[in-house]
Amino acid sequence: MTPTAPTWINLKPAFLTLLVQYDRPNPNHVSGVSASDGLFPDRVRISWDARCQGPMGGAFVNSFQVYRSPSETGTKTKTAISSWQTETQFDDTTTSLGVTYYYWVRCSALAWGGEWLTDYGKAETGYRATANCTLTISSSAGGSVTTPGQGSFQYAQGTSVAVVATPAANSHFVNWTGTAVTAGKVASEGSTVVVLPGRYVGTINFLGKAIRITGLGGGACTEQSEDIDASVTGLYSSPTASFSQSSEVPAYPVIDANGQGTAVSFTNGEDSRAILEGFVITGGCGMQAGGIFCKGSGPTVSNCQIVGNRATDAWSGGAVYCLDSKAVFENCTISGNIAGSLGGAMCSMSLASKIVVADSIVWGNVPRSINSASLLVVYSDIAGVGGAWSGVGNKNVDPAFVMPGYWANPNDLTKPASPDDQSAVWVHGYYHLMSKAGRWDPVTKTWVKDAVTSPCIDAGDPASLVGAEPSPNGNRINMGAYGGTSQASLSTSGQ
């Protein structure tokens, strides 16, 4: 068989053409551009949408730049006022009052074909707020207002202004006063306001804030302060008091309502984070409450003397009146308070109230210590008829105060007055507990020994911390306002 001759195929070169189409950004202007109109007193805020998309919805790596002009049609006056940025917000702080500005935002998007820029699009207008309020801030010696500073500042009406006061060395911030601000309004949530020793005339309202106002830990007061003026001033010490950080035991500052109403009010839903500690609360005179009024709240009051207050309604609390509240009173001394005929030093006529009294002394009040079925009292000395007030660790025994205060004839302070005498004035006393081992004498500023020892020493809740009580302290907290503090009377146990 004769083989077949091979067949040859002539192959010609073939060319394959690939068409690559690059997805390009939307040539239209950036969407969602807006500029603030009179919202801020010191700037105009420009914001816009985050994405710059191609015709098929593809996302790109974007950056943005903001342009400004005093004229909408002034193409030549468009000026870039920001660098290229990835954020979708920019604050223009170079504006002037009374001028309306025009803003544009351009987008730069990176695609496979390179970098692409959008056009300017439609302008958005914005302007600063007109300053129509002047805030003047100053401070007394002992510190300065560091934010926004001291002097006069212009703000638009309704602007919230953060203010920060910084004390100097060996000084403590006390409070804010003035027609524009008060201590409660200025202090932010969670703040601690430290008040130095002295006499502060007026009343306090916590205004619903979770703040701690403390008189513990201040310097020793060597002379009584004057009343605080209502000027726009950050006070770092009382006007005429002299304070030091010496080894002397600090005195408690005095809140004296001076008959102008209830001394302290918790009436705006305060909870246990609203704390008042380390004060003498006196001079209160109200219908339902003299010293402290709690309504729909649950504050914590500790290490306070609530003395020399008066309430006038029949069902009232000379020291404390609680309505629908869950307050806690710990290590308080409540004495010399006057209530209506059916009231008491502590009174709560609401079954919804749940009041806790612990490590406290309620003694020498008129007409009675407590008139309430909603109080839980533990490890406290409560004056009453018969035995101790129902509760764990309670007593009904003279606490042996050094020298309790009393109501006196206004024409002769050496003569006691009847509690029913509306003209009677309160003469302050000393509520340290007497001790054979020693107790602090605020007059001589020394530790002295007494002939007797108070049964309220080493009588508080064993679970309560001894705190700053000096040795010997019996490893158990004292009852009363000075329990757990550096002013606690000494224990005879030798421990």
What class do helices, strands and sheet pairing give?
Answer: mainly beta
- The unreliable regions are 11-26, 54-59, 179-184, 219-248
Main beta sheet, described? Answer: 7 strands, parallel
Whole-number average pLDDT? 79
> What percent strand?
25-35%
Radius of gyration: 36 Å
Cα distance spanning the termini: 130 Å
Q: Name the helicity range.
A: under 10%
Strand elements, count: 45
Shape designation: elongated
Q: In order across it, which strands form the biggest sheet?
A: 14-17-23-27-31-34-37
Question: How many H/I helical runs?
Answer: 1
Give structural notes:
This protein has one helix and 45 strands. About 12% of the residues have low confidence. Among the domains are: 93 residues, Immunoglobulins (Immunoglobulin-like, Sandwich); 239 residues, no CATH class. It is an all-beta fold and 495 residues long.
Question: Any descriptors?
Answer:
seven-stranded parallel sheet, 1 helix, mainly beta, elongated
